[in-house]
Structure formats: C-alpha cells, structure tokens
Amino acid sequence: MFRDVGPELTDAERNRAIRTAGILARQAQQTLTLTTRKQYRRYRADAGECFMCWDQWHVHYRKAYVGPPLSLGGGGPTRTSGAGNTY
What we know:
Layout: H1 11-28, H2 36-47, H3 54-64
Helix pairs in contact: 1-2, 1-3
C-alpha cells in the first residue's frame, strides 16, 4: 500500500486528497493511536481507485499537522533560571 503508485488525479481528486490529509492530521493530534500510516490506510479505504500515493499524501499530512509534538511526560534535564544548574 505504501509503495503503490497512484493514478493520475484530476484537480478535484487531488484537492480532495489534500483536504482529507488535513482532516486526518488534525484528528490525529494529541493521540498515540492514530498514527500517520493508520490515517493513510483510512484514507485509502475511502478513496478507492482514485488515491494519492503515500509520498505525496504524507507531505500534505505533515503540513497540516501543526502544534507541538505529543509529550509523553518525563522530559529531560532543564536549566533553572538564575542559578545556571542543570537538574
């Protein structure tokens, strides 16, 4: 699926793929279960024979996925203000 070469898309089909990539990217934000590949599988299941290939779709998905990456907690060392110590 991720190596399939997509067919030549009309402007409407291309715009639909880009719009869908954006919708799925926003749905996936702040989740651990809705991965990019899982979202592409959802897109392909709905798109049928008129689909955008993975490489192109992934570019549009990443552009739409805005905001900081999901924090899993813990973090790393931080510098305290003033003291200059790293904890």
